[in-house]
Amino acid sequence: MVTIALDHVGVVLGRRPVVRDVRAVLAPGTLVGIIGPNGAGKSTLLRAILGLVPAAGNVRIDDVPLASMARGAVARTLAYLPQGQTLHWPLTVERLVALGRLPHLAPMSRVGEADAAAVARALERAGVSDLRDRIATELSGGERARVLLARALAVEAPALLADEPLASLDPGHQIDVMELLRAEANGGALVVTVLHDLTMAARYCDRLLLMDAGAIVADGAPLDVLTPERLRAVYGITAAIERHGGTTTIVPVARAY
Asked: In total, how many domains does the chain have?
């Protein structure tokens, strides 16, 4: 289990503040959704947590400064699923997913039995075991998205950071992925994911960080964050918020002017 603490984290790209003064403690066993309109800084914040962009302030992993950790240790602790990844090499799905084991391997070493078992578990959890012998570059967009999720799962890290994992997926597979992320959190992992689907965020996440113009403007339980007033102020929309049997549905209705 791992805890991530963010202390006044900020990112400036091209002289433009993209993430501003973010403070939060992300605890193990929780599914945290980062939401907000396009350009709010969600993906950049995720990359700052991983140390992939220069950032002001401090990111601490179990009270250890991220800046003092070796990159291999970071990769074993924080598994990362980026958005919109393009595949260039005609690897089989199984070999592609096995790349998730690289943080655990010494230089020039080969995948061992424990690594192969981790790959098999990841393929099964992502629901892509039947694709293991397919060439990854020949997959559909939805199949590719689930295979890349399997690669992140193969790391078997205590934290998983996923950037828009529902992109390119049909509704059924969106549910499958959210159920998987929910199960990871229930098993003790810290899961942090960028989402645009507000209904999925409300249904599955324990906690939402709502971002606007680089800053967190609301942080809390989904129904406390996703209020009509905030949806109007941040997204510029009116929305129908309906609750049925413990499930919340959020349907954008119109632009709010």
From this structure: 1
